Amino acid sequence: MYGRIMFTAGVAAVGLALGTAAPALADENDDIFISVINDEAIPYSSAENAIGLAKAVCEYAAAGQAPEQIAVEISEPANWTVEQSGFFVGAATQVYCPS
């Protein structure tokens, strides 16, 4: 339940960031995404790797995986808590996944 709350909070925070931004181009989406995960102190090796993983989240979601499942699966390799991973998945979904 706590993970779902954190995931929902992440989605809301990203939605707020996107809602206050001007219409974004790809580079602006990248900047917004990196800013959001930096604000949550989610560690990553490089911006390029974080963006690549974020885009892969969309592929997992398109294949039918639930956001919570994706968060659990990427948390260990990324060395994140489930809460950090859930926030990352929420941010990635809001920024990169088509509606």
Label this structure with key terms.
single chain; 99 residues; mainly alpha; 5 helices; 76% helix; 0% strand; globular
Topology, pairings included?
Blueprint: H1 2-19, H2 26-39, H3 47-62, H4 67-78, H5 82-96
Helix pairs in contact: 1-5, 2-5, 3-5, 4-5
Structure explained in plain terms:
With 99 residues, this protein is mostly helical. The protein has one domain (2-18, 26-96). It has helices at 2-19, 26-39, 47-62, 67-78, 82-96. α1 (2-19) runs parallel beside α5, α2 runs antiparallel to α5 (82-96) and α4 (67-78) crosses α5. The protein is globular and about 25 Å long. The N and C termini lie far apart (25 Å).
Question: In short, what is this structure?
Answer:
The protein is mainly alpha-helical and 99 residues long.
| Overall outline | globular
In what range is the share of β-strand residues?
under 5%
Low-pLDDT stretches? 20-24
Query: In angstroms, what separates the terminal alpha carbons?
Result: 25 Å
* Count of beta strands: 0
Order of helices and strands: HHHHH
Percent of residues in helices comes to over 70%
Helix count, DSSP H or I runs of 4 or more residues: 5
Derived from helix and strand composition plus strand pairing, the structural class reads mainly alpha
- Integer average pLDDT: 84
- Main sheet overview: none
In angstroms, what is the radius of gyration? 12 Å
